[in-house]
Design goal:
- The structure is a homodimer of 200-residue chains.
- The first copy, chain A, has a domain at 60-193.
- Chain A has nine helices and no strands.
- Helices cover 70% and strands 0% of the residues of chain A.
- Chain A has helices at 6-21, 28-35, 41-46, 49-78, 84-96, 105-114, 126-142, 148-171, 178-193.
- The model of chain A has no long low-confidence stretch (mean pLDDT 87).
- Chain A is mainly α and 200 residues long.
- In chain A, α1 (6-21) crosses α2 and α1 crosses α4 (49-78).
- Chains A and B meet through α1, α6, α8 and α9 of A and α1, α6, α8 and α9 of B.
- The structure holds a DNA duplex (18 and 18 nucleotides).
Chain lengths: 200, 200
DNA sequence: GTCTATAGAACGATAGAC
DNA sequence: GTCTATCGTTCTATAGAC
């Protein structure tokens, strides 16, 4: 096994610090100090701080995306019309799982999604959109009376609950354990997704 | 009617810019430029940028807090045990309403709550805690089987959905109107809050 | 209360030696 | 690929004139 390499150590340090302090709250100096690398290494390996963020985000999102996709494949292999509760678990569950890179992944994603800074947007790729579209279609079949727009609202609600829980786990004095949060969230979200359409 | 006064104009400008760009993304210069005031006025009127944020947050939270409290009073005047759906509407509804100061209030609160910066924490006061405790007690009566910790999780879920919707309304190309979002959110959240306790 | 001026520190980026 | 050194910018905060 080769040594981790400066590039990877910078990615690890940046992931941790962006999650803890946000993009603007993290300096390149803090990242390279934590990584044990030189200040100029970020420029050499990534070009700029914004491009480093994009690399960190891509690496963090990828395993979640893959788990969501595999979960949907598994459900669709059994039936063409999986029930709402199963879809919720397959979609939301990976957001609570500990990923190989560590436990900070979801926290990072919230920080990115809720940061108003311009650099935080536009790094999602076609893979993320494809998974989202597949779940969208599956939920539409499971919830035939729901309009596209209200379903879109509800899918964002899933992300919101998963995300803010992770923020809160860091800020609260008595954080819930990961397993309890996962179960509570799926109970909460399965009921929410199963609600009848809002009458207008 | 006296002129708005430099202090108020700074508060207005800071509320708008903190909501749009976050705390660290907003400079005192940008605030005083937008307010038509001098750079040194922030120091004179508020002491520091962090104290200005606290003043902005207090002013933004107060009407939401009052509306939540009045809504609960109204429900409790009719029955000692309001149903879950009514509690959800009274608690979450004000988060979607346009407040006197403008439409940015909820957006600001999300930005503050999800910002990892240290300055963002510790400005909530006893009034906010009191309202939260009263709703907590009312939900406990309406959901007798639910543990305190799972109820706490669900109350944070309400804030999460309301909050992220407001973020999204700014970022999406086709934002939902405020009224539709309010109705959809209350449908979604009433069903979620009414879910039976997670079996362990 | 409002202004000018500036101190003092941190930042992102990069040139150029090795 | 890694390092030192530094440029140019931007920031908060404040001293002191009016």
């Amino acid at each position: 096994m080769a040594s981790p390499g400066t590039r990877t150590q910078i990615l690890d340090a940046a992931e941790q610090l962006f999650a803890e302090r946000g993009f603007r709250g993290t300096s390149i100096r803090a990242i390279t100090n934590l990584a044990g690398a030189n200040l100029a290494a970020v420029g050499y390996h990534f070009g700029s701080k914004a491009e480093l963020l994009a690399a960190v985000a891509r690496r963090a999102i990828e395993p979640i995306n893959a788990a969501q996709s595999a979960g949907l494949d598994r459900l669709l292999a059994e039936t063409a019309d999986p029930p709402v509760a199963d879809l919720v678990e397959a979609f939301a569950g990976p957001l609570f799982d500990e990923m190989p890179g560590g436990a900070r992944t979801s926290r990072l994603i919230v920080t990115i999604l809720s940061d108003p800074a311009e650099e935080m947007r536009g790094w999602t790729g076609p893979a993320e959109d494809a998974v989202r579209d597949r779940y969208f279609a599956a939920f539409r079949r499971a919830l035939p009376g729901l309009s596209e727009r209200e379903l879109g609202f509800r899918l964002r609600g899933i992300l919101a609950v998963a995300a803010v829980d992770r923020v809160d786990a860091d800020n609260t004095r008595s954080p819930v354990t990961g397993e309890a949060a996962r179960h509570w969230a799926i109970t909460f979200l399965a009921a929410a997704m199963s609600a009848p359409p809002t009458r207008t």
